[in-house]
Amino acid sequence: MFSLLFASVMCGCGAAPSDDRAPTDTDAQPAPADPYATTQPFAADPQGEATRRGLEGAFAARVVRFDPGEGAGFGAAAMPWVVLGGPRGAGDARGSIDVVSLGTGGVIELAFGKTAIVDAPGPDFIVFENAFRFGAGGRTYAEFGRVSVSDDGVRWVDLPCNAATGEGCAGRAPVFANVETNTLACTDPALAGGDAFDLAASGLARVRFVRVTDLGTYPASSATSDGKGGFDLDAIAVIHGANDP
After folding, report:
1. Which of 27, 87, 97, 243 has CB 3.0 to 4.6 Å from 137, enough for a Cys bridge?
2. Which are the contacts of 113, defined by CB distance < 8 A and separation ≥ 6?
3. Measuring CA to CA, how many Å separate 100 from each of 37, 54, 106?
4. Reduced to 3 states, what is the DSSP secondary structure of residue 182?
5. Domain 3-12+46-243 has CATH 2.60.120.260
6. Torsion (CA) 117, 160, 64, 98 in degrees, nearest 10
């Protein structure tokens, strides 16, 4: 048996994004080059990161697999800490650099500690990438990832995802919640941003593992694939969780 918890973590994250944060580029301008493929800003501090992130709430607690694909590398020096704990979003018009790039076809699997994700009404967890919008037409710079879930780390179920359009995939939406700079609820998709998922689509009542696989596909409104480092994972947050007694 387990006790059901409905996560309402208020992360130490300013105000909700306002309309004046929209980028000012014109539609005629091309998408920016991938800013995450060639630079590495992190000075790894595992002990400090582990302590800081371990106190933030119901987020991924452990990386159990990381198989980077071609073009990966950004954020690798800060693994695993860079994908644990809460999101550090940069808003509508700029992607976070607190991420690890999976590379084309790369795979990452994360485990949750004492809190499992459980199926309850509405979305049950959020995957945070670093998509951002640009141009007057609101085009999106995005890299799609397929999300899969498992309760035992052996049997996996893929959640519905259209690799061509991004429908149902992760990596579509900008991230606003930031555990360092604002107080937006990291477990509220309407405020936090990111891409929310409902376990009902998997047929599983609870899961302890989430996998993200880079699909190597990008929306037509985004940049070409040249220079991309694949899906950039920031964090995963539990909306509906349960603790074992």
Report:
1. 27
2. 61, 62
3. 10, 18, 11
4. coil
5. yes
6. -90
Among the listed residues 13, 221, 61, the one whose alpha carbon sits nearest the alpha carbon of residue 136: 221
DSSP reduced 3-state for 179 = coil
Segments making up each domain of the chain, as ranges: 3-12+46-243
pLDDT-derived band at 245, boundaries 50, 70, 90: low
pLDDT of residue 51: 52
Kindly report the pTM of this predicted structure. Answer: 0.79
> For residues 145 and 104, is the Cβ–Cβ distance under 8 A?
no
- Pick the closest to residue 145 from 238, 32, 16, 231 (CA basis): 231
pLDDT of 85 reads 85
DSSP state of 190: H
3-class state of residue 114 by DSSP: coil
- Rg, Å, the chain Cα set: 17
48 backbone φψ class: left, alpha, beta (φ>0; ψ -120 to 50): alpha
**pLDDT, tens digit, 9 for 90 and up, residues 11-54:** 454 333 433 333 333 333 443 343 333 333 334 455 555 555 55
Q: What is the phi-psi region of residue 53: left when phi exceeds 0, alpha when psi lies from -120 to 50, beta otherwise? A: alpha
Query: CA 210, CA 127: separation in Å to the nearest integer?
Result: 9
The answer to whether 160 touches 128, Cβ cutoff 8 Å, is no
CA 66 to chain centre: 15
Better pLDDT: 183 or 137: 183
